[in-house]
Amino acid sequence: QVTLVESGGGSVQAGGSLRLACAASGLFRSYYMGWFRQAPGKEREFVATVALSDGSPFYGASAQGRFSISRDNAKNTVYLQMNRLKPEDTAIYYCAAGIPESIVTTEKSYNYWGQGTQVTVSS
User: pLDDT 10s per residue in the chain (123 long)?
Assistant: First the structure.
């Protein structure tokens, strides 16, 4: 059984940083673990993902240059370091895990989801 537990959300002022963590159990190295976010009134958006096998990261447009995803296989944990945060980064951030056949940026590629953690960035 796969479980994902997010932590690290909170409130921060624009320009600040937060680090999200997703602790997983029951995953194999063939999985990808990623982050999606959903702002009020908007669709869920891909943020970043990482291959557990070799640590290869992929980023969505909103994360490029400001966010960094990494994994610690010994701790079964994936991190999302978010820097230079903007008010438009305010959303619920969801951790997800799956074995994408090809495209790693779509929700359909992920079978398991965490409960989400709120990130609020004030101006």
Answer: 899 999 999 999 999 999 999 999 988 888 999 999 999 999 999 999 999 999 999 999 999 999 999 999 899 999 999 999 999 999 999 999 999 888 889 999 999 999 999 999 999
Task: Give dist(CA 45, CA 61) in Å, integer.
Answer: 10
Report the amino acid identity of residue 58: F
**CA separation for the pair 70, 78 (Å, rounded):** 6
CA distance 98 to 105: 11
Amino acid at the residue 37: R
Q: Where does the chain show beta strands of DSSP type E?
A: 3-7, 10-13, 18-25, 32-38, 45-51, 57-59, 67-72, 77-82, 91-98, 112-113, 117-122
On the CB side of 121, CA atoms within 13 Å amount to: 18
SS3 92: strand
Alpha carbon 33 to its chain's center = 8
